[in-house]
Amino acid sequence: MGCAAKPGISTAVNWSKLDGWQQDDHSQLLSPLLLQCPKLKNKQAAWKTICQRAESLASDDSGQIKAFFQRHFQPHKIVGNNSSKTGMITGYYEPLLNGSYVKTSRFNYPLYKKPDSLIKVSASTNLLKVKDNRARGRIHLGQTVAFYSRAQIDGPKQPLAGNELLWVDSSDDAFFLHIQGSGLVQMTDGSVVGVGYAEQNGHPYRAIGRDLIEMQQISKENISLQSIKAWLTANPDQATALKNNNPSYIFFNLRENVEQGPRGSLNVPLTPERSVAVDRKIIPLGSPLWLSTKLPNSSALYQRLVFAQDTGGAITGPIRADVFFGRGERAEKLAGEMKQQGSIFILLPKI
């Protein structure tokens, strides 16, 4: 019997193995590539050369850009656990909330800034044993303890009172903003501000959709952002307890450029349907990836080159990607329903 392939980046393959590569719109690839070049060109000699040469490409010349990628990158298979060829592909988007800088009877749910009391602690003192050693804590009576959980932060004692960035009019919308990681807020004067990820409280992420399935409130086949929102609206007496099952909590800052997409973990603006979140322990941030899957409720293949520019608490494992769909109704629908099987190839620099 042969040994199972080790999960992660595997053997090099020919470009012909990337089904749909010839049909992709390669003219869309130059912009996200150049956006991430300032973050990559000083980290690796190959990326420095790639970025220098990419600057001379014609942005509307799809053939030239395709040839550029074929010259400078080598596709490799990504193998999943137990030698699987496919994994889970999900989606996220940039939601729009309603907000105010002043607390009122309508706007009384806070989005918090990063608290001064939040400290990073070493992996050796990881208080919660969370993945990636994402340890966070606070000092209490001279001792380092775990930072406040969601239930504590949003509870009656309000330990972060006075640290509000702004206020929104829906507890559920605030909760889902934490999952998406960034969004837009329409203020009372009609202006729109962007909020982005600033920090996390160090507690592990827990998907409440899984809880609803186990509670037999929503079937596995019907679980989605939309069905979870509908359940929370219909069950307000149970909603708070369910949301508190997810102890992870996100802190935000104001984004300078609302016209650009939010910035992911690579700290570059995300490009709709060309940026994805990955597990950075397996896939280096900035890596071009060939994604082959299907959109929800569609038989048509969804195949395209994307860039690993973000991470997420629920995005773990080798064949795992979260597609950034952008903003608007279509993005919300796709992000909420996306839970498809798909395959991923990574393009590694070969200079």
Short description:
This protein is of the alpha+beta class. 23% of the residues lie in helices and 30% in strands.
Write structural notes for this entry.
The chain has helices at residues 30-40, 45-54, 62-72, 150-153, 171-180, 208-214, 225-234, 236-244, 329-337, and strands spanning 8-12, 73-79, 87-94, 96-100, 109-112, 119-120, 136-140, 143-146, 164-168, 183-187, 192-200, 250-255, 275-277, 288-294, 301-310, 320-327, 339-349. By secondary structure, it is α+β, with helices and mostly antiparallel strands. It folds into 2 domains: 8-91 and 263-349, Barwin-like endoglucanases, CATH 2.40.40; 93-255, Ribosomal Protein L25, Chain P. The strands form 3 sheets. A 6-stranded mixed barrel has the order 3-16-13-15-14-17. A 6-stranded mixed sheet has the order 5-9-4-10-11-12, covered by helices on one side. A 3-stranded antiparallel sheet has the order 6-7-8, with no helix packed on it. α1 (30-40) runs antiparallel to α2 (45-54).
Query: Which architecture of the largest domain does the CATH hierarchy give at level 2?
Result: Beta Barrel
- According to DSSP, the number of beta strands is 17
State the fourth-level CATH superfamily of the largest domain: RlpA-like domain
Helix content: 10-25%
Question: CATH first level of the largest domain: which class?
Answer: Mainly Beta
Mean pLDDT: 93
Structural class: alpha+beta
N-end to C-end Cα span: 37 Å
> Poorly predicted ranges (pLDDT <50, ≥5 residues)?
none
Roughly what fraction of the amino acids lie in strands? 25-35%
Label the overall shape.
globular
Tally of individual helices: 9
Number of domains: 2
* Sheet with the most strands, sense and barrel status: 6 strands, mixed, barrel
Sequence of secondary-structure elements: EHHHEEEEEEEHEHEEHHHEEEEEHE
Strand order of the largest sheet: 3-16-13-15-14-17
CATH topology of the largest domain: Barwin-like endoglucanases
Radius of gyration: 21 Å
